[in-house]
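To fix ideas, we quote verbatim one protein's residues and C-alpha cells.
>
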Amino acid sequence: MAYNGKGFGGGGYGNSFKEMHKATCSECKKECEVPFKPREDRPVYCKDCFSKRKNESR
C-alpha cells in the first residue's frame, strides 16, 4: 500500500482517508502528522526517522 499523505490508500475498504494527527518526532523533534492519535507513554517518529529505525533493526 502506498502512503498518500492522508493515510494509506488502496485495500478496497471504501473511504481510505484516515484522520491525521499532529505530533512531534521523538527522535529529530520535527513536527509531523501521523495516522493515529499519539499517546504520552509511546514515542512517535516522523516518516524519515521511522524508516531509519526500521532499517536499523534488520
User: Anything to note?
Assistant: The first helix runs from residue 47 to 56. The helical segments are 47-56. The longest strand covers residues 21-24.
